[in-house]
Model the fold of this input.
Amino acid sequence: MRKNRKSIKDWWDIIGYGLSIGIAYAFYKLGKDAGHSDFELYFMSSLVGMLVGIFTYVVSSVQEMKKRVGPLKKIYSALRDCSNSFDHIYSKLKHVECIVPKDNIGLVWNDLSWSIKKSYLAVNYEDSDALKTKLAQNCIGIQNLKSSSGTVQVEKLFIVDSIDELNSLIDLFRCHLEGQVKLKYIEKKDILNPDGYLKKKAQLVSSWDFSIIDDELFFVWELDKKRKGTGGRLFFSKNPEEVHRDFLEALFNEGTIIDEKFLTKLEGKNLSQQVVDFEGLSRKNRNENNIYVEN
Done:
């Protein structure tokens, strides 16, 4: 039967052993007749036999490899076809939009933060309380780590309903600045200004909270009227005129830079306002209690 037949390599091994012994014996016999010592003859015949054995082993291995080249080519061809299939599937996925449920949006954000290779550009409008959760802090830490490496560009713009809203984000801003993240902000009224060009661009996007990863993957956070996250969407696009990309670029052009100097000034303004409020409250109390009345 076929399974009992010896392989080409087995036959070459048998031929190699026979040639090694035969040539070694012939070499020994010739040397003996020529008057060489037994030590010389044993050494030289062993060396010749070993060289012949190595030669036949190499020949048998080459023959065996030739026999396996055909199947290996088929395997390589199959792997190449499989790779082409994956590329085809991936290219199709780039035209599919993925819906992210509310309960999974934080986990997706975490995975996307780790996946950043070149850039992470974000527009934030979600309620600031959402940025104080443990999962959000983890994602922010990952982004800071990527940015501080010097190989990844991380930039964020925060949309606020009023300047006062920036006060609750000071700690977050400082954390990002330590990670070398570039920050900007813009007020909502500036976006909705009927005389500006931002309003028209804002009306084309479904949400004011989104990010662009590596210039092609868009992660859009859907918000309700209270700016709470309700879910998200993922989709690919390299279109330079994509509405979210266009809106982001316009916002970054109009936004105000947030740096340490700005934060120091913001904190100083807050402290001054607190002093004024305290003095006003003190005067009111004194008037109400008739302790002191200004003329």
